[in-house]
Amino acid sequence: MATPALRMIDIAVNFTDGMFKGIYHGKNCHIPDIQVVLNRAWNAGIDRIIVTGGSLEESKKALAIAETDGRLFCTVGVHPTRCNEFEESGDPEKHFQELLFLAKEGVEKGKVVAIGECGLDYDRLQFCQVDIQKKYFEKQFELAYAMKLPMFLHMREAAADFCDILDRNKSRFLSGVAHSFTGSAEDRDKLLSFSNMYIGLNGCSLKTAENLEVVKGIPVERMMIETDSPYCEIKNTHAGIKMVKSTWPSKKKEKYDPECLVKGRNEPCLVRQVLEVVAGCKGIADINQLSQDVYHNTCRVFFPHDLDSAADALLTGKENQ
């Protein structure tokens, strides 16, 4: 029997970020290169990418980007650090309705696969205070309930309140992933106590020896992989770096070369490195099987029709035997 090919879905890419237009800290360093980045991703074994929306305007841009390629999808929602936009809009309910309208439009186009990025971030309260974050995190479950979509979630230093809100709203969403997870073993176990919750891992999840110990305790059937690019790369100083097997040449942004990665800018092809570190720290020898398992988890949440089609094909095949 042939070994299954490595197959991956990057569940979190911030293609709306200026770095993919060649803009770094307000300075234009190279041409926009999303297509170059995508080609590298497809060649690395990635067959789908979810573009993250973190505000109403960003969600509109994410949908527009997702419409440029059949393998791109997106989320619609408001990040905890941006929840002031509801109040600042002058009409929070109208703002919410615009999000709902955008989500409906995106679902009809086959592009919006989750509500988010939403949640709680107590690490950056300078951007949005706790009470506003909690109010509009809870409000966005109404979007998930109305659209029958999963939740794409953000949790930073806020596990207790985050899980309380999840618990109150557990009947209002189908499933969800707490992406870019960097929490403790206790935080992990709180999330895993919700049977419909998954944990998304990227370079920031694999920084320290303590992080790797926490990852060891996440069952394979409850994890997903991501880059959160252009952020959260696996750096040479990270504990997981010794388990990385795949590398790409890179150059500084000032010496941009489309054949190379931009040094310090994460991109989707590097999700393969996340898979390698997860395999290494969990002692999994068969990385191909790990990729298949994680791929299946991701489809179960964001692309359930794929699983339905596969099950139908299997059933049809058995009937024809």
UniProtKB/TrEMBL annotation:
Keyword Hydrolase appears in the UniProt entry: yes
Any one Pfam family here would be TatD_DNase
Q: Which UniProt keywords apply?
A: Hydrolase, Metal-binding, Nuclease
Q: Which domain of life is it from?
A: Eukaryota
The record's Gene Ontology cellular component field reads: cytosol
What protein name does the entry list? TatD related DNase
Protein family according to the UniProt entry: Belongs to the metallo-dependent hydrolases superfamily. TatD-type hydrolase family.
Q: Which InterPro entries does the entry mention?
A: Metal_Hydrolase, TatD-like, TatD-type_Hydrolase
What residues does a divalent metal cation 1 bind to? E117, D228
- What Gene Ontology terms describe what this protein does at the molecular function level? 3'-5'-DNA exonuclease activity; metal ion binding
